[in-house]
Amino acid sequence: MPMLTGMGLAITIDVLIRVSFVLAVSLMLAYTTRWNAALRHAILVAGLAAVFIVPGATLAMRGLPVPRWQLGWLSRAGIDGPAEIALVSPQPPNEPQYRPARRNQPAPAIVRTRRDEARLDPGHGASAQSDKPSLGPRAWSRWNALYGRLMASCLLWTLLSGAIVKVIGLGLSLVRLRRIVARAHPVTGDHILSVLELIQGRIPMRQPPRLLESAEVSSPVAAGIIGNYVLLPTGWAGNLLLGETLAVLGHESAHLARRDHHVVIFQELLASLLWFHPLVHRLNRMLNRVREELCDNYAISLVDRASYCEALLHLAVGRPGASLRGATSMWPGRWSLEDRVRGILDERRPTDTRISNVARSATAICSLAMCGFIALPQLTASPPNDRFVTVADGDSPPRAKASLVAHEMTRSITRAFPVTGEKMLRFENLAGRVELVPGKRPTVEVEATVRVGGLAEGDVRRLIDEIGWVEVPAKDGGSQWGLSFPAEDYPTIWYPVSGEAKADSDTVHYLGHEVRIANRRGDSTPSVEFDLRISLPPGVHVAVDNAVGPIGGKSVDSPLKLSTRHGAIKLGDVRAPIDAATKFGDVLISRLDADAVVQTGSGGIELSRVTQGHVALSTGSGHCRVVLPPESGFRLHYSGTRPLELVGGGASRLSALSGDRRSEMLSRGTGGPSITVTSDTGDTVIEAGP
């Protein structure tokens, strides 16, 4: 079951808070107008419409650059997502200074502390412990946060499942209502037609309703959502007196004339979506009652009050407790017949059936104003559009009265790793760029630039402060180093560098955990970049496994094993054996003077100026291009489904075809590189000079 965390959880709670406020305001205003049923009905209908408008307006305002009041209720609760507004205070001199950065600007200077720089002598063994102290209470805080989010997610998924069941039930009820109407029998008779003609003259309608009898209903209902029908129980039409017929048909015709069936559908939909909300059920009960009061006003305009009450008493015998969903019934739930009759007989009761045009316009304007007023405050924090505050070198941090702070923080961690003989030093990276440069010291030095964003300022600060180098067991029995990341708290991250992640999302294994990496910003997902600059002494054996991001380097004199899932590998002046592999990225190597093994999935391979060594190239659907110096010899074996293209002459060529695969041998002179190319569906071009 997916877990709602961060921004997704905050948005859900945000919408529920606003909807609850709309319901509460509507109910309070309705209580103040109990003396006027028409005005109370208008207020409740406006509140019902606002309940549907406010969530959409809130979500729309999150993406609009409009000024909003920053209340930060959910920010202080610690469940919001990216922070737009926060307070910044100067940090102690011994703490690392966090500086916001932008992708298209160089990161401001970062003060490195001694605890972030761990240099080991060549004779010391690498420690299996993290270079950061134990988290202690902070780990318990993370566990409590994870537990709270898990419980909230379970609750929200339960509410969502209930809403789905309720909406399906509403759809089935409408289908059942349509079938009842289809099976009903029309009611005919001169007295019925005369009553309907009288009602149409007193209650304006486009057309008189069709009167039907059905054994599947036990009280009069108006089925306006599927047509202009009034359903009566079987046998009622012939047993009702004239006054009772006039009262019943007048009441149900009023529902159809007022189009109450439209409001009923929205009520049922709201009750299905927010089936757990007590204020929703309270609003629906009040709206059902006031709707019946207004239709009673229509009825007592046709018959006198006492006769209408007698008709109600007569019709109430044996009436059911529940009505059809999607239809309006004469008997709303939780309204006693005694209270209804008392209200009808009250001579002070206003008999208005509608409000004036001025009052209707004022109600609509107030409803829209209430929607804007409720949707405007910023309860949760949302990321601003390119609004960052950068602290230049030498400047002091802003004081507490400053309000804007960047949603991204940067930290630098430098560490030296000892080299033990020919033992391979392995690094694993989650997402970011890896740069390989020649080193002058006998140890491998790694400068990591960590960027974290997309969360509240406090969450970003805690997350970036907990990142440090850790050593974990490797699959082959050795060990490897990587920057720690709390995957149990953040199972999904966003890598913000566009174009480097080829798929919408992918799940990778990092330091023994599964992490989902997305190339699109999502709710409650932090943006993470671990850019590594690795200084390599000559001859050291190093392996780098990068999940997402490119790997590049020049003047490589160290045997390397490089792999990246999403991203390109670009190397120049390679004078030591190379093993490079990608799944979705390209591999480009210029001036290769050593053995090489290159494998790609859908990425292309390009080697320029290959002078010597044993080179093995393998690709799935990528294209392959090899450029050889024109004066040197070479030997090449090709196997693939597409023809091999040779540019240049002076080479002997031998071809063979086996099924849909081609096999070719190329050679020129003696010496030079020995190259093997295996391709499935990509093109292969060999440029051997003139």
UniProtKB/TrEMBL annotation:
<feature type="transmembrane region" description="Helical">
    <location>
        <begin position="150"/>
        <end position="175"/>
    </location>
</feature>
<feature type="transmembrane region" description="Helical">
    <location>
        <begin position="43"/>
        <end position="64"/>
    </location>
</feature>
<feature type="compositionally biased region" description="Polar residues">
    <location>
        <begin position="673"/>
        <end position="682"/>
    </location>
</feature>
<feature type="region of interest" description="Disordered">
    <location>
        <begin position="660"/>
        <end position="690"/>
    </location>
</feature>
<dbReference type="InterPro" id="IPR008756">
    <property type="entry name" value="Peptidase_M56"/>
</dbReference>
<feature type="transmembrane region" description="Helical">
    <location>
        <begin position="6"/>
        <end position="31"/>
    </location>
</feature>
<dbReference type="Pfam" id="PF05569">
    <property type="entry name" value="Peptidase_M56"/>
</dbReference>
<feature type="domain" description="Peptidase M56">
    <location>
        <begin position="154"/>
        <end position="341"/>
    </location>
</feature>
<feature type="region of interest" description="Disordered">
    <location>
        <begin position="90"/>
        <end position="109"/>
    </location>
</feature>
<protein>
    <submittedName>
        <fullName>Antirepressor regulating drug resistance protein</fullName>
    </submittedName>
</protein>
<keyword id="KW-0472">Membrane</keyword>
<keyword id="KW-1133">Transmembrane helix</keyword>
<dbReference type="InterPro" id="IPR052173">
    <property type="entry name" value="Beta-lactam_resp_regulator"/>
</dbReference>
<feature type="region of interest" description="Disordered">
    <location>
        <begin position="115"/>
        <end position="135"/>
    </location>
</feature>
<feature type="transmembrane region" description="Helical">
    <location>
        <begin position="358"/>
        <end position="376"/>
    </location>
</feature>
<keyword id="KW-0812">Transmembrane</keyword>
